[in-house]
Amino acid sequence: MRILLIEDEIELASAIQSALEKRKMAVDHVSTLGTARYAITDVPYKLVLLDRKLPDGDGISIIPHLRASAPGVAIIVLSAISDVTARVAGLDAGADDYLAKPFSMDELMARLRALDRRPALLREPQTAMGRMVFDFEAKEASVDGARLGLQRRELLVLQALLERRGKTVRRESLEAEVYGFERDIASNALDSHVSNLRRKLEQAEAGVEIHTMRGIGYLLREKDA
């Protein structure tokens, strides 16, 4: 899951980002609505964590733009404005949840798990392909019960390919899933992650293989018997 965090309190943003990344989630952080509008059009986010009091306006004002740019994106408002009227305004504006500051990281993670269980996200907690099982909640892949030792970006590559299994994933789309709007990416970085992932799947006899569609992207499919 790639997450956009829109928060101008640097210490809080750093704590949230660290907690999410420890759980193998990819997080991009911005501190203004203007930057957020740019980010959401550049990267296919699954979740947005949205502060209300931002330097250039009320966070909930961007919710219609988020919905239009990324249909199906989940939105959690994080705000010190926590009275009933404010919570109702946030939910009526289109947020999926509203979490009052200060909050514990355990509560935030519980809210994320609750959102991830919603049918609207159209995804089972686990998916199987070949002899491999991918656990979306634990962010782990295993073959016949044995955990694959995948690095974080390798897991992001595998998740993106699994979510579009049987379809070619364009290179630029895969880079957006893995790197967000990072700009200092080596030209062969994605190829290196794909190569390492392909090797580990082969060594584990996972029963799946990654095909390079020259000039287009990559395709994950079950290996022929």
Can you give a write-up of this model?
The protein has 225 residues and is of the alpha/beta class. It folds into 2 domains: 2-121, Response regulator (Rossmann fold, 3-Layer(aba) Sandwich), CATH 3.40.50; 126-222, Arc Repressor Mutant, subunit A (Orthogonal Bundle), CATH 1.10.10. The protein has helices spanning 10-22, 33-42, 63-69, 84-92, 105-116, 152-163, 171-179, 189-203, and strands at 2-6, 26-30, 47-51, 53-54, 57-58, 74-79, 97-100, 126-129, 132-135, 140-143, 146-147, 168-170, 208-213, 217-222. α4 (84-92) links the parallel β6 (74-79) and β7 (97-100). α6 (152-163) crosses α8. The longest helix is centred in the C-terminal third of the chain and has 15 residues, at 189-203.
> What's the arrangement of strands in the largest beta sheet?
2-1-3-6-7
Number of strands: 14
Order of helices and strands: EHEHEEEHEHEHEEEEHEHHEE
Residues in helices, as a percent range: 25-40%
Tell me the major beta sheet.
5 strands, parallel
Percent of residues in β-strands? 25-35%
The computed structural class is alpha/beta
Mean pLDDT: 87
List the helices and strands and how they pair.
Elements: E1 2-6, H1 10-22, E2 26-30, H2 33-42, E3 47-51, E4 53-54, E5 57-58, H3 63-69, E6 74-79, H4 84-92, E7 97-100, H5 105-116, E8 126-129, E9 132-135, E10 140-143, E11 146-147, H6 152-163, E12 168-170, H7 171-179, H8 189-203, E13 208-213, E14 217-222
Helix pairs in contact: 6-7, 6-8
